Amino acid sequence: MFSYRHAYHAGNHADVLKHTVLIAIVQYMTQKEVGFTVIDTHAGAGIYRLDSDAAELSGEVDEGLRQLLKSAAEKGLELDELLGEYVQELERFNPSGSLKVYPGSPLIAHDYLRRHDKLKVFELHPTDSRMLIKHIEQLRAGRQINCYSEDGFEGLKKLLPPPTRRGLVLMDPSYEMKSDYARVVSSVQDSLKRFVTGTYMVWYPVIARPEAHDLPRRLKVLAQESGKPWVHATLRIKSGQMGSQLDVLGTNNAPKRPGLAASGVFIINPPHTLKPQLKSSLPQMVELMGQDALAGFTLDSGS
Ligand code: SAM
User: Which uninterrupted H or E stretch holds 148?
Assistant: First the structure.
């Protein structure tokens, strides 16, 4: 328990997919004047240095964000609107022009909120939770943000429905424990009973584990039972590696493990604009970060 640290993975291809989708949803929600709440049940440390030992040891950002930027420059490819917005958001966190830090989901979400929107974040790892609280304090956002060093699946219950009945729940567990897959499903099921019109976004690793394989299918059943629309997107950057996303840490003496090859996001009650946006962004992600012939994406939806 608790060996997962997002510092090793910040800016990898899975973050590119997840944070691009997060931006698309939060940007859409700001189009209506009424305030909304973002609940991040597994928030991580908030912001990550890309020159840290952890980032350098795993090298994952080199296959993800850095590769995306490098290929786009080499190919002279103009990023589509959504990926362009994602890159601009990273530039706002790196005003010197060189990529030094990578913002995690709570800081990205916060950056798009208006004064009357709210952010609620959960992080259970003692060290990452302390770092998250420190990073949130630096935002000087006051009561706009609540930070809980608690179990996000449990804590979520007391926050639904949000006061304005507009909200996004991001569930991004580490899946360090197999039980996380079942907890995601039961948490989404319970949340839909409390707040059926909420938007739910679940990230998961595409790995050779029955629970991971079943997760999007089970979420689709929940969406259909609630009569709610859904979008499901996956991104694969290379063939092979089917282990868990924890299998990425090399040591100074051993070669790095190959890292996670693919991941997915499942969204219930997505903005109607999300699928067309992803139809444009996903092929660019594959073109820019794909490493071999098995790189690709899937994009499905239902209502
Ligand atoms: N959402 C973050 C982002 O995109 O920047 C990354 C989160 S990381 C994949 C998952 C985090 O969940 C880890 O920091 C881990 O310590 C934390 N965690 C694990 N189990 C948890 C639980 N039951 N409740 C809250 N946080 C948990």
Answer: strand 145-148
